[in-house]
UniProtKB/TrEMBL annotation:
One of its GO terms (cellular component) is cytosol. This is LysR family transcriptional regulator. Keywords: DNA-binding, Transcription, Transcription regulation. Transmembrane segments: none annotated. The keyword Signal does not apply. Belongs to the LysR transcriptional regulatory family. CDD domains: PBP2_LTTR_substrate. It comes from the Bacteria. Pfam families: HTH_1 (PF00126), LysR_substrate (PF03466).
Length: 322
C-alpha cells in the first residue's frame, strides 16, 4: 500500500528548492534549521530516495530531486485548490492567485483584469509575477508556479498547457507633436525609418518585440530604455516616438499624437493555463476576462482609413471650462 505524502514536508522541500538552501528556507518558514533538515530527511525516507546532494558545500538537487520538484508543485496546487473549493461556500471566493506576465502587458490589460476581479472578489490576493520574457511566463505556468500566464498568442498548446484568446491590441505610433507634422494617418511603416524612436530594451538588439515588420524598418533609435514609464515621459518631452497599444496611448499619455500604422499591426492577447480544474479564484478571474472581452468586442468601431483633421490630433488632459 502506498503511503500518502505529508503535504507539510512537500512544502518544506519546495521552500528549500526555491530559496536555494536550508538557511534561507528556514528563515522564510520561521522554523529552526535543524527542524527543517530533519523534515527533509523524513521526506526522503518516505519517498525512498535522496532529494539533495549533500556532498558539496552548497545543497543541490539530485536527479531524483529534480524529477520530484514538478510533481511536488502539482501536489500543492491540487491541495490548495481543494481547500479553496471547500472555503468558497456560498460563492464567497477567496484565496491567492498567481498570474505571470511581461511588462508590456502589465498596464493593459493586466491592470483592468486585476481591478475588475478585486471589485467583485475583494478577498482574493493577486500576485502578478514578471518572469522577464514570454518564455519565462510559459515556464512559470508549466511548472505550476502561476495559475495563469497573460501572453501574446499564439503559444503552442500541449498535454499540459492550453490557451484562451481574449482580444487584439491595435499597435500605434505615438509621437510628440513636433515629430507629427506632415505625417499622414495612418503612417506607412516605411516612413518609420526616418523617425527617431524611444524603444524598450527588450532583447539583445534593444528593439521592441511587437512585430517583425517593425523590426525591419526601425533605423533611427534615439533612446534605449529599460523603464516603461521613463519611455512614456521621454516621448511626451519630445525625445522621440514609440509604439504602444491604442488603449494605452489614448488613456495613459497626454500631449502626444497617436497615429495608426499601415499595414496595421495587431497582436492577439490571451490567457495560458494548465489543463484540469481551476481554483475558485482562477475561475472567477476567467469569468472577469470573458466579461471584459465581450465589452471590448462591442466597443470596436471601424475606423475610416486615412481619416484625419487639418493638423495633428494631440492628447491633452481634460480641463474644466471657466
Amino acid at each position: 500500500m502506498v503511503r500518502p505524502v505529508d503535504l507539510r514536508l512537500v512544502r518544506y522541500f519546495l521552500a528549500v528548492v526555491d530559496h536555494g538552501g536550508i538557511t534561507k528556507a528556514a528563515q522564510a518558514l520561521y522554523i529552526a534549521q535543524p527542524s527543517l533538515s530533519q523534515a527533509i530527511r523524513a521526506l526522503e525516507r518516505e519517498l525512498g530516495v535522496e532529494l539533495f546532494d549533500r556532498s558539496r558545500r552548497q545543497l543541490t538537487l539530485t536527479s531524483d530531486g529534480e524529477a520530484f520538484a514538478g510533481p511536488a508543485r502539482n501536489i500543492l496546487i491540487a491541495a490548495d485548490s481543494a481547500r479553496a473549493k471547500v472555503r468558497s461556500v456560498r460563492d464567497l471566493v477567496a484565496g491567492r492567485l498567481e498570474i505571470a506576465t511581461v511588462s508590456t502587458l502589465a498596464v493593459d490589460p493586466m491592470a483592468d483584469l486585476t481591478s475588475r476581479l478585486l471589485s467583485r472578489h475583494p478577498d482574493i490576493l493577486v500576485n502578478v509575477l514578471d518572469p522577464g520574457s514570454p518564455a519565462g511566463v510559459v515556464s512559470r505556468v508549466r511548472r505550476g508556479e502561476a495559475e495563469f500566464g497573460l501572453v501574446e498568442l499564439p503559444v503552442k498548446g500541449d498535454e499540459v498547457l492550453q490557451s484562451r484568446e481574449l482580444w487584439e491590441q491595435d499597435i500605434t505610433l505615438v509621437l510628440p507633436p513636433v515629430l507629427a507634422g506632415g505625417l499622414p494617418d495612418p503612417v506607412p511603416i516605411e516612413a518609420i525609418a526616418a523617425i527617431p524612436l524611444v524603444v524598450e530594451v527588450s532583447d539583445a538588439g534593444g528593439l521592441p518585440l511587437i512585430d517583425h515588420r517593425l523590426a525591419q524598418v526601425i533605423g533611427n533609435v534615439a533612446v534605449e530604455c529599460a523603464h516603461r514609464q521613463a519611455i512614456w515621459d521621454l516621448v511626451t518631452r519630445g525625445a522621440g516616438a514609440t509604439f504602444l497599444p491604442r488603449r494605452i496611448a489614448e488613456t495613459q499619455l497626454h500631449g502626444v499624437v497617436v497615429r495608426s500604422l499601415t499595414p496595421s499591426i495587431k497582436r492577439t492577447i490571451g490567457l495560458l493555463f494548465r489543463r484540469g480544474p481551476l481554483s475558485p479564484a482562477a475561475a472567477a478571474f476567467l469569468d472577469v476576462a470573458e466579461v471584459i472581452r465581450a465589452e471590448r468586442s462591442r466597443e470596436r468601431v471601424p475606423r475610416t482609413p486615412g481619416q484625419r483633421g487639418t493638423g495633428p490630433k494631440v492628447r491633452t488632459r481634460d480641463r474644466k471650462r471657466g
